[in-house]
Amino acid sequence: MAMTGTPGRATRTRRTCENILDAANAVFLERGYSGASIDAIVERAGCSKETVYAHFTNKAGLLKSIVERGTEVFRHKLDLVEEDRPIKDVLLDVAKGYLIFILTPEMQAFYRLVIAESGRMPEVGDVFYRQGPEITANRLAARLRLWQRDGLISPDDPDRAAVIFFAMLRGDLQWRVLFNATRSPTTVEIDAHAAFVVDGFLALCRYRDPATRSPGDRG
Predict the structure, then answer these.
(1) What pTM, to 2 d.p., does this model score?
(2) Could you give the number of structural domains in the chain?
(3) CATH label of the domain that carries residue 166
């Protein structure tokens, strides 16, 4: 979604896109991806088909943008890391943001939608995976490589380590919420789970506290 022109026009375009995505998300959840039509989305958004196609091309483009928008907040936590910030603090921030995001009722409803539709329409699952879990893991892997370069951690495989980090975070908490098995976890439980996972992950990556390393030790 390229934003061009004057600041005022860019703001209006952004609002239009957000409105369309909100409408598409609501229609997808109500009717399923296969049952949702551009006509229904247009009616909900109060815009024209031409506007939808101009910004998102098709229904798959809408799904892709919805997933991108949803994961953008905690992905940026990895992009905007201050170089001198402790690794543990960064990972805790990412972990809590990730858990809060995936455990919302809205996100769980979206998970159920993707799971239900992927059997009939594999492209739905593919878009969700590539724009959500895959990109998120790749961002973390890139950050792990920087920390590895600086001699702070020694993961055997940064890509696999990133995938494991998010899998550890989802753990039992996501199953409980996804299947409505019991009450949703509290903030205290989420914080405790995030801290436990981060400690275990740093041990897995052989984290070396800078305060305990000798000068010049990077290996």
Answers:
(1) 0.77
(2) 2
(3) 1.10.357.10
